[in-house]
Amino acid sequence: MTSSVSRHLPPGLTLPSLALRALLLVLPCAALALALPERPHVVVVVLVVLCSALWARVPDHLAGAVSLALVVAWWTVHDVLDWRILVVGVLLLAAHVVATLLSYGPDALAVDPRLARLWLARGLLALVPLPVTWLALRGLDADLAPPWLWMTAAVATGLLLAVTSRLMQAEGHDGLLSDVGRAARTSGPGAQ
Amino acid sequence: MNTWRPTPSLVRACLLALVGIAGGVVAGLDVLVVLAAPFVVLGVMGLLGRPRHVPEVRTLIDHHRLHEGQGTASRLDITDLAGVEHVTRVAAPAPHVATRPTYGAAGSLVADGLPILEFSPRRWGRRVIGAERVALTSTWAGWRCGPADMPEHGLSVLPQSTPYDSRAEVPQPDGLVGRHRSRRIGSGTEFEGIRPFATGDRLKRINWPVSLRTGELHVITTRAEQDAGVWLVVDGLRDIGVSGGIDGAASTLDLTVRAAAALAEHHVRTGDRVGLLVIASDGARVRLGAGARHLHRLQGTLARVRTESRSVPPDRLDLGAGAGSVVYVLSPMLFTPLVTATASLQRSGASVVVIDTLGERAGSTDRLALSTLAARMQQVERDDRLQQLAALGCPVVPWRGPGTLDTVLHQLARRAQVPKVRAR
């Protein structure tokens, strides 16, 4: 079974890579399918499926952004702010992370487990604002909120992100530099 | 490598984040804000991860001279890794070069060490490796430098020395020192016999047990040990068959070159002087010599043998080989002029051995196909030529590796002791 599948794959494409590409096709479609029993317009469905398929074929393709934007636009237009939005957010972010993971190299590049774990952690980190924003918007009555609240919220969010990223960047650089020094010592020609 | 450019992943995250924030704040679209929130994190982190310097990248290979089947590694040398998180390299496929990873694509996090590509040439000759593209990616996959094309490296691949050994001595050793037993008696260590003492014999050669038993002085006689001149004539006029490298089928040129390398190594290690004549469009000639450095020179010359369709066989083999030299002609013997030249060399007094390097060729299953008929006709003509050559006293043996030449050399050695008339 496995060998028969491998025969039909492009040269160098491994099964983990194929599985990730299949996820890339499925995830945006699943995000749209959460709308059932309400049926999205057939044009939207066809476009999402086609763009996702193209995205799965070429993870760097602009079709990925189009596919995500279509799904986001559909949910925005229908203004559904229930639990399904959280699932849609997770699915879309997962698709983006999978595409990023696949875009590090050509088809023949095997998926690096360490890199996959790193991006899994990053994906979880990126998910943190999702429930926070959802809870905030669910509990907030936009009509009763004072006008400065939106601006304050936007500035506060921006500041928080900047401070967080700055802190993470400094930590990352220190760690990275020490790792590079170690890597250079161990991987040099004379190291063996 | 001239600049850092945003990756498609960063562009996608920034687009979704910007549209979401703008739509949420301006139009009050709650859902858009919720769905865009994770992409804000990814976009901001990616943007902030832009490295400040453009690093210089070059590739280095561990070896520039290998035997076929051996391997070498290609390593990266990057000047400034600050801000670089991941390195990807993809090597272009090269004929007769195996790569690890199999498809030449390797990538790793910088923290785990720079990715290494391993190359193993599977066929002798001049190979080119290291033509590859390298891309560097910043943290959070925000920025990418490259892919940049790296220059290729030339690799001189020496033929594999197939295991070869021979216990036979060369027929007519003519040098001063060596490991072959001389035809003349001398001060060697090889026992020849015991005879009565004669004036001039050294006292240390007296065999006292025999002298006491017979009542007359007897001395031990020994043979001197000499080296020999060995010429290798390599036919590089045509290459019949498809070479699969050391792992697959061998073409005629593969067999020829590997057999020549094995014979050269054997005779140089034995202490003989070995010379080489390559018959090809850009033929080469290496004079008789001995030692490890000379062996490297021979192997390097063999690695440069190339066939061209415009090559023409020579009318005569001008080796300058003396009567004591042994000449191995390694050839599939497909050209009449080469057969004639070999016969002329045989008549001039050299001990010539033809090593047939055509090998086993699987023909087409269709016996009436045009190509099959042509091959059979050529085979018939070739067999006829080889029979004529054998009738002249020139042995023809197919190359079979170790022990291929033992019987033939024993016969030549016996023949060398028989008086003969030499044609000039």
Automatic annotation (TrEMBL), chain A:
The chain crosses the membrane at residues 12-34, 40-56, 83-104, 116-136, 148-168. It comes from the Bacteria. Keywords: Membrane, Transmembrane, Transmembrane helix. This is Uncharacterized protein. It comes from Nocardioides zhouii. The lineage of its organism: Bacteria, Bacillati, Actinomycetota, Actinomycetes, Propionibacteriales.
TrEMBL record, chain B:
Keywords: Membrane, Transmembrane, Transmembrane helix. Residues 194-319 form the DUF58 domain. InterPro entries: DUF58 (IPR002881). The chain crosses the membrane at residues 15-48. It comes from the Bacteria. Pfam families: DUF58. This is DUF58 domain-containing protein.
